Amino acid sequence: MTLSFEVGRPRVPGVEARAGKFPGPSLIPALNAIQARLGWLPREELEELSRTMRRPLYEIQGLISFYPHFRTTAPAKVQVSVCHDLSCWLRSADDRIAEIRARYGDDTEIELNEVSCLGRCDSAPAVAVNEHPAPAAGVDALVAAAREAELDEAGVTGRTDPWPNDPYPAGSGLASRYASLRALLAGEVSAESVVATLEASGLRGMGGAGFPTGRKWGLVAATDPGGVKYAICNADESEPGTFKDRQILTDQPHLVIEGLLLGMAVTGAEQGWIFIRHEYGPEERVLRAELAALREAGVIGADACGSGRRLEVDIFVSPGGYILGEETALLECMEGHRGEPRNKPPFPGNYGLHGRPTLINSVETFADVPVILQRGAEWWAEQGEGDSVGWKFFAVSGHVEHPGVYCVPMGTTVRALIDLAGGVLGGAQVGAVQPGGASSNFIGPDRLDLALDFGTLAEAGTMLGSGALVVLAEGTDLLAASTNVLRFFRNESCGKCVPCRVGSTKAHELLRETLDSGSGTLDEARKGRILQLEETMRKTSICGLGQVALGPVVSVLGLDKGGAAARPQPRPGGSAEQPDR
User: Fold this and answer.
1) CA–CA separation, 118 vs 138, rounded Å?
2) Cβ neighbours of residue 477 under 8 Å, at least 6 residues apart?
3) Phi, psi torsion values for 359, nearest 5 degrees
């Protein structure tokens, strides 16, 4: 696709810098295909791609240098990746890494890499051997299988009983599913009534920002009626501690896809994508199987459900990078550019993929739509605790007995969710909690009765975020834990804006110096410097990564002083109008 369909449209203010971008089809799927076939990207393959696609080689090299999944050297026979981020660190990842390095470090057939979150925090410390995910305890068996070229594809661990947000009975097939979509395409319900029901339900974006879902769908539907539009499901959850979407994709591919198709039908989009991180290969296969069945049954395609409307869904595999969870960086990637966030406004709802209105919602958001349309807005609102509405998926990890995904009423307390996960390991007391993933500020043990909801957590100086609750037992070095989180953000900064790129590096250096000195406490000069860097990054970074990167550290400094309150935290993206991940 190109930008040619923008001809004749009014110029959208704020997009002048995009005039110099390379137009044309994204080269990323082609690069993914080469690497899947050969294991790396040989120069002769890149030169051939350049000739075939009539694109300059330096453009291709610019893409490769940005995305961490691409490699320009041949891999070893066995590639072992070990996660070192917070949830795994809390489960002794450093010790496991040292053991694996001691066992295989001198083996020329094995390449060992420490990596950022693999999305397997429920089996922390997590590893991947030739992209086959597993707990670290299983690394020897996987390495042995990989040596003999006998490593099978990883499967998924699903759930037998439907989750509470699934309106379809256990064991139901395709013929009885997609009921809301069929009703909409048959004219039994209108697009306007779908938007009204979602607005009345109070459903908000579950990817982190909490933008009202019905309002977003209505805005995209009203933008350029009859024009080309797109819809995207953001399945690129890559934040440490976050893996709920992975489980939803495994157990509810039908709900995610139905929600996406409903969004397309309501807003007028004919083409949709599920943008999924490359580490989710098993889940990608589940989605592809569901899409193939839908095409076979005529639910999607040129004549979706016999309605005469075209609805098509494809999968776009991410070439890596946490920053792609930010919706405009995701769009840049899909267009074939380096995944650097755009300045906003304009927002994707009126100027998104290839300059067209684009609906973007998270996996969980789309998965909640079918049950709301079938059981009604009032039913959804009644599922929450107190003033909260609906069900909420949480990924619970860290120092808990049973890490995993839990679906609870919105408004459930932090304490109740920890209890549901079996309590703290070994019967220890809670030392601190990150209630909303790596971007959220830590809260102390005196705040465990906080309700897990957007407003309540924001008032407490943290946020619901990505729905990832990470528990730290009493006695955990909180400064070291927050430094671990900062390292992730430093490594994942796209580098586009100076405050984020330089500020995260400088702050991490200050914290590492303190930890390495053995003091464990920042002196006043360093503390003041950290606070200055945090304020600068929060106020001047382009996207949410830089704006929240130092929040967890600052919140820990508050805990050290005996309080749990931290600074008011901005939404990722820095605006109340920011749509979700």
Assistant:
1) 15
2) 520
3) -90, 125
Distance (Å, whole) CA 127 – CA 82: 4
Count of beta carbons in the 10 Å neighbourhood of residue 385: 17
How far is it, in rounded angstroms, from Cα 25 to Cα 314? 15
- Residues in Cβ contact with 322 at an 8 Å cutoff, skipping those fewer than 6 apart: 116, 117, 238, 239, 488, 492, 545
Distance (Å, whole) CA 416 – CA 529: 38
pLDDT category, 25, cuts 50, 70, 90?
Answer: confident
Tokens of 420: 């549901």
Pairing mode of beta strands 126-129, 78-83: antiparallel
Q: What are the distances in angstroms from CA 53 to CA 47, 48, 56, 86?
A: 10, 8, 9, 42
Q: Tokens 């591919």, residue?
A: 253
- C-alpha distances (whole Å) from 298 to each of 175, 181, 567 are 11, 13, 52
pLDDT of residue 15: 75
Helix or strand holding residue 53 (H, E): helix 43-53
Chain-centroid distance of CA 303 in Å reads 32
| Cα separation, 461 vs 441, whole angstroms | 7
Taking the C-alpha atoms of residue 497 and residue 539, their distance in angstroms, rounded to an integer, is 12
Type of residue at 258 = E
Are 258 and 181 within 8 A, CB to CB? Answer: yes
Q: Are 376 and 384 in contact (CB under 8 A)?
A: no
Residue pair 579/209 in contact (Cβ under 8 Å)? The answer is yes
Q: Looking at residue 122, what DSSP letter applies?
A: G
Task: Among 132-141, 156-165, 383-392, 570-579, name the one with the lowest average pLDDT.
Answer: 570-579
Position of tokens 């619970």? Answer: 396
Between 343 and 45, whose confidence is greater? 45
Residue 36 CB neighbour total at 10 angstroms: 11
Q: Where are the beta strands (DSSP E) in 33-168?
A: 78-83, 110-115, 126-129, 132-135
ω into residue 240 within 30 of 0, thus cis?
Answer: no
The answer, yes or no, to whether the previous bond of 346 is cis (omega within 30 of 0) is yes
For residue 165, what is the DSSP state? Answer: T
Instruction: Write the DSSP string, 311-379.
Output: BEEEEEE--S-GGGGSHHHHHHHHTTS---PPPSSSPTTTS-GGGS-EEEEEHHHHHHHHHHHHH-HHH
What single-letter DSSP state applies at residue 270?
S
Please answer whether residues 512 and 486 qualify as being in contact, where contact means their C-beta atoms are separated by less than 8 angstroms. Answer: no
SS3 (DSSP) at 206: coil
Question: Which pLDDT does position 560 carry in this prediction?
Answer: 59
> How far apart, in Å, are the Cα atoms of 544 and each of 326, 467, 575?
8, 16, 9
Beta strand residue intervals within 376-528, DSSP E:
391-398, 404-409, 430-434, 468-473
Whole-number Å distance between alpha carbons of 190 and 349: 21
Residues in a beta bridge with 80: 112, 129
Q: What is the pLDDT of residues 113-131, one digit of tens each?
A: 999 999 999 999 999 999 9
Summarised one tens digit per residue, pLDDT across range 342-401 is 988 899 999 999 999 999 999 999 999 999 999 999 999 999 999 999 999 999 999 999
Q: Which two tokens stand for residue 43?
A: 């120069």
